[in-house]
Automatic annotation (TrEMBL):
Coiled-coil region list: none
Modification type N6-(pyridoxal phosphate)lysine: residues: K264
Function in brief: The glycine cleavage system catalyzes the degradation of glycine. The P protein binds the alpha-amino group of glycine through its pyridoxal phosphate cofactor; CO(2) is released and the remaining methylamine moiety is then transferred to the lipoamide cofactor of the H protein.
PANTHER family xrefs: GLYCINE DEHYDROGENASE (DECARBOXYLATING), MITOCHONDRIAL (PTHR11773:SF1), GLYCINE DEHYDROGENASE, DECARBOXYLATING (PTHR11773)
Subunit structure of this chain's protein: The glycine cleavage system is composed of four proteins: P, T, L and H. In this organism, the P 'protein' is a heterodimer of two subunits.
Annotated GO CC locations: cytosol; glycine cleavage complex
GO MF term (any one): pyridoxal phosphate binding
Origin superkingdom: Bacteria
EC number(s) stated in the UniProt entry for this protein: 1.4.4.2
Gene encoding the protein: gcvPB
Listed name of the protein: Probable glycine dehydrogenase (decarboxylating) subunit 2
Catalytic activity reported: N(6)-[(R)-lipoyl]-L-lysyl-[glycine-cleavage complex H protein] + glycine + H(+) = N(6)-[(R)-S(8)-aminomethyldihydrolipoyl]-L-lysyl-[glycine-cleavage complex H protein] + CO2
Amino acid sequence: MTIFEKSVQGRKGYELPVYDIEEVKCEIPEHLLRKEPPMLPEVSEVDVVRHYTDLALKNYSVDRGFYPLGSCTMKYNPKINEDMAALFTNLHPFQPRETITGAIKLMGHLKELLCEITGTDDMTLQPAAGAHGELTGLLVARAYFEDKGELEKRRKVLVPDSAHGTNPASAAMAGFEVIELKSGEDGCVNLDELKAHLDDSVAVIMLTNPNTLGLFEKDILEIARMAHEVGALLYYDGANLNAIMGRTRPGDMGFDIVHLNLHKTFSTPHGMGGPGSGPIGVKKHLAPYLPVPIVKKTESGYDLDYNLPKSIGMVRSFYGNFLVMVKAYTYILTMGNKGLKHVSDMAVLNANYLRKKLSRLYKVAYDRICMHEFVIDNEEFAKKTGVKTLDIAKRILDYGMHAPTIYFPLIVHEAMMIEPTETESKMTLDRFVEIMEKIYEEAHSNPELVKKAPYTTPVKRLDDVSATKFPIFRYKK
């Protein structure tokens, strides 16, 4: 039920007293004044509070339960992060520079820490999220080749078929031609396939390591050598950094550009469009092209530097999503060097624990030691039982947990991608395994039960086709 359906004519939340001051003539132009009252519900204050509290209780979040979305790293957000961010909520980007020296120092120190974690030389904190960081990184690459006089010939970006969908989209938006690389039988980059496409027409190779299948690219040093040999740049999609943070660094593997998702790896909450933060780190030969302003260390502390003649310009208003940076900064300081390494250790351990447990009943696409996530292949399962991956995901909801990522990556048919993160206990993981075992039994004994799920959610099974073809974007009485 919407708030409009609770409306009762004449009901009010509160009423302002009659003003005893002289009315001031309105300076708003006549053509901008509303001719009719806005369509607002007539409800009391308690009606409003109860309505939105009820909606909030229907919302599922990582604070309420397990959220094993593969490739998304939906990890728990410590509440100290929110407390620290709250200290800065009264800041305004138009304040005089001398009144925000603390905020600038925080950004400067955060940049240094992130450069150390990623093995890069300089960084911009400006991009608003991961895909925005991708686009920014590719625009930096474009400016680099344009400055060298090579942009006309370097038109190609190589992207593995297991990559995030935003990778080819970002490359296309930056004006490049996207070439897909077929994965090898082991789920990693096929060096022969790479060699066949690699020449001086290639500008960038975009990789995630570990890749979207949760597998570490064992040939990464050779890939970097091959890329640099023809003058191409190597780009790192940081969506999966949670698996290697503190263990190894993309910059040490040979990556020239590294994008991060502060709202994944460094715990700040994300989803439904924000808030996010997608900094990109670069090696020193690309630093002149970063967006302005750059936070730089000075003799007296930190300051904002707009003097980058070769900069691609600003990619977002002001300095980026500052409060997300505060949360990530708090997380890094709280964890420390050993803590960040422990995060990766536990993320990998939890993923392999689930992989081993679930492989007894479900087929794991690449059933070997994985990193932070793994992919189940339900193609044969669906043929045998008639129960598809979507049905399993919907049935999981009935047991009070969020479903994993489904139908991604595209190279695995009927894929279910699971990432438990480091913050989940063995008890929670065992509960998830128990649910998956029950659904397996139901699929064989009573498949229709699973195919019509969910039963316990506020909204039952949706008509996906109609929702796609005939979406309703606004409320109508």
